[in-house]
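User: Show me an example of a complex going from sequences to structure tokens.

Assistant: Sure. Here are the input components:
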Amino acid sequence: MARWRSDTRERLQAAALHLYLSRGYDETTAADIAEAAEVTERTFFRHFADKREVLFDGREFLTTAFVDRVASAPSDAEPLAIIASALDGAAAFFAPERREWSRSRQRIIDANPALQERELLKLAGLAVEIAEALRTRGVEEPAATLSAQSCLTVFGVAFAAWVADGETRPFGDIARATLHELTRVTAGPDAR
Amino acid sequence: MARWRSDTRERLQAAALHLYLSRGYDETTAADIAEAAEVTERTFFRHFADKREVLFDGREFLTTAFVDRVASAPSDAEPLAIIASALDGAAAFFAPERREWSRSRQRIIDANPALQERELLKLAGLAVEIAEALRTRGVEEPAATLSAQSCLTVFGVAFAAWVADGETRPFGDIARATLHELTRVTAGPDAR
């Protein structure tokens, strides 16, 4: 993709976020976003299927970040090590310069139940893709689904902490601490 | 609730399941269900908000089953023991005589993406309620959310196995084996 297209895309995303926060998601149209980004509505729709997808198109890159790390983990890695590797992939995606965008995006989603549902469904789809990548590596069921779901559990908790007001630790540090806490919680003395 | 009402409700549920399987979910109306159950449409709507809720109203009882066991676990129980207790609550709910109903229901849901989304969202809500019940017991974050999500992870995997063709083990046995497998997966040597 040529650089100018990427610029346009980022301008559209920035304009959308600004309008969703200042005017409200429901009150903003694709035409409003295009106008604020100084492009035509047709250009908006070349980049995004609709105004909702401005908030969710990054999920494809995130899925790739997760799944690539699952695929490239050492061949003898245990599921937990593969999960840790996948979370490192997410950490590369959620770089420090993305935190403000993610925070703003989360504020918009938290204010809109329909967007929350969309987010949940996207994350459920992500878990399915990670489980598939684990099975491709030879991880059997139910370990593959349990690992993939646990990866998403850690991701969800870590992400919420990462975008919380005042949090300054990098995503990778939070994710590792959360994975460690999951190990602690699920390895209690009462395991049956 | 008087016995006759419960009978009507069960008749409506049985008629709905039969129609959803034989004719298709989208092709069945609340009026069709009422007619098959030999009651008026108004009676249908006294029991269910719409035709979709015939498939989902049990979720409230399931939530209660989970949350009650979380609340009533011994006061010194570790999160994992509380999860095991909650899964026992689910096992009481998914008694052997419910398996055929659950199998049929699952077949209908698997054939309909909108129902799958509804199911995912209901389960996400269940995780939120379990986390809340854990916090009420004094379990701190992020352990409460990690435990609740892990509980739902185990539940989802165990439930899918329980309704699989040919599976004969009781839900409780499958859930315990799955919880054990989760402990194994998340306690690998590569824990950081």
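The lines above are the inputs; the final block is the predicted structure for all two components together. Chain A has two domains: 3-51, 57-186.
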